[in-house]
Write a structure and sequence with these properties.
about 475 residues, mainly beta, Immunoglobulin-like, 5-stranded antiparallel sheet, about 0% helix, elongated
Length: about 475
């Protein structure tokens, strides 16, 4: 009868979301065994396993603890080999179970992840700390092995999910190198850190003598999905020219860092004019703001104002609707920009942030104004061929004028026609010569009167005249005195 046993040689991936305070626990993991074949008994103790203290903590943008870790989960996953980008996860890495204190047949674990479970739920009691131990006997520390460290916030959390790819490199002289790369578009550490970097896991040389275990923690932080949050509302859903609409914008700093350089860019709809005397801004108390208007956009600059973590800036202003508002969409949008300020090692760094657009739409009613116009005119026999109806030049009943939208207008007994509620803008109209058999267009002294089709421009509430002069097709249709 043979006895098979395995002494686990474990390392820890120290790709953490922020270095925790140094832990000098000597993790001496030994396995005691006993065997008897009925006549002989063997007992002994294995050599200590080499473990690396992998503890770190999930922190906010500035390295401070999150307000709450309830519902947060972090896990170590194998990368999906079918994904050429190397960003998708396949499944959780099957870690070797551990125990604290050591259980029967189980190696010694590491606080706070006593059982080496994967994924691991974070907790307020553990202050966001976590740990993972890898087993080289399972090939988990092989050269080129790729893992993805993934942080998952609870549903509805303001914080973002994070993914960091870890590629193991060469191991030499008690060291194992690795490369960590951010996969979520955010810096690995803080708000101004690098997106990728090479690191080294330090492996203890002599655990038997109780030397402290060390590891290089990969500083990595988690920030809200929207570091800045902008919202925009109005005091009414519909309005008409002459009305004033009050808009309110709120900007909230959802990070743990102060923010300066605040600016709000507001794109106003056509026909909405900003009343400069109406602008008000406040953070608990009123704050100054500089307004610059250019065309249909306005910039609200808050100068030296610093928005503290958790604070909200309120901005209110009024827009006056002009008749031109009938031509616009009534949609107003705003974007906020700011710089998050962080001090590290005596150096202050700033990271540009933005949010938006925040959109609010006002339905514009016509009121007493209208955005349509009226077309009226006459089809008559232009005997004088001067393009103007004179006494003794009768209208031609039943003549048909067709607009570019296929609307047909039929002249009355006097050759007069009209059409109301024609949309503003440029329109073309043509005289249907089949409706006036035996007639041709009169050759007027004015070239614009010669064409069978005419182009007209209708302004909101305006009126345009559209006349067509004709003559019998058998008459002399020449112009005396030339053309103008």
């Amino acid at each position: 009868m043979r006895l098979f046993f395995t002494v686990l040689l474990m390392f820890a991936v120290s790709a953490l979301l922020s270095p925790a305070s140094a832990q000098d626990d000597g993790l001496s993991n030994a396995l005691s065994y006993s065997y008897s074949d009925g006549s002989n008994t063997m007992t002994g103790t294995s050599q200590p396993s080499q473990l690396v203290d992998p503890r770190g903590a999930v922190t906010s943008c500035d390295g401070t603890p999150l307000p709450s870790y309830a519902g947060f989960q972090i896990g170590l996953y194998d990368a999906d080999p079918a994904d050429p980008a190397g960003t998708e996860i396949k499944s959780a890495v099957p870690l070797t179970p551990t125990a604290v204190p050591a259980g029967s047949g189980l190696p010694l674990g590491v606080e706070p992840n006593n059982g080496n479970v994967n994924p691991f739920p974070l907790s307020d009691a553990g202050k966001g700390r976590f740990s993972f131990l890898l087993d080289p006997s399972k090939g988990q520390m092989g050269l080129g092995r790729i893992y993805i460290l993934a942080l998952t916030p609870p549903p509805g959390s303001a914080f973002r999910a994070r993914r960091i790819r870890i590629t193991l490199g060469e191991g030499s002289g008690g060291q194992v190198s690795y490369t960590a790369t951010s996969l979520d578009g955010a810096p690995i550490s803080g708000m101004t850190g690098q997106m990728s970097g090479s690191h080294t896991l330090l492996v203890p040389r002599d655990l038997a003598n109780g030397l402290p275990l060390t590891a290089l923690a990969l500083g990595m932080t988690d920030c809200p999905v929207r570091e800045l949050q902008i919202t925009k509302t109005g005091d009414r859903a519909t309005a008409e020219p002459g009305d004033t609409v009050i808009y309110r914008i709120t900007v909230t700093n959802t990070t743990t860092l102060p923010m300066g350089g605040l600016k709000v860019l507001d794109a106003t709809p056509v026909g909405f004019d900003l009343r400069l005397d109406s602008v008000r801004a406040a953070v608990n108390t009123r704050v100054p703001v500089t307004v610059t208007v250019s065309g249909t956009s306005a910039v609200f600059d808050f100068g030296a104002l610093t928005l503290a973590p958790g604070q909200t800036l309120s901005l209110a202003y009024a827009l006056l609707l002009t008749p031109n508002a009938l031509r616009g969409s009534g949609t107003n949008s705003a974007v906020v920009t700011a710089n998050a300020q962080m001090t590290m090692n005596g150096t202050t760094m700033s990271t540009p942030l933005s949010d938006g657009p925040a959109v609010f739409t006002v339905g514009v009613r016509r009121g007493i104004l209208t955005d349509t116009g009226t077309v009226l005119g006459r089809v008559w026999i232009d005997r004088s061929r001067d393009g103007e109806q004179q006494s003794g030049e009768p209208g031609l009943p039943g003549a048909v004028v067709i607009l570019d939208d296929s609307t047909r207008i039929v002249a009355d007994a006097n050759g007069l026609f009209s059409l109301a509620a024609v949309p503003s803008g440029y329109h073309s109209a043509v005289l249907d010569m089949q409706s006036v058999p035996g007639y041709v267009l009169a050759q007027s002294r004015f070239r614009e009167h010669h064409s069978q089709s005419r182009l007209v421009h209708i302004t909101p509430g305006g009126m345009v005249r559209l006349n067509f002069g004709v003559v019998p097709s058998g008459s002399v249709n020449s112009v005396q005195g030339g053309r103008k």
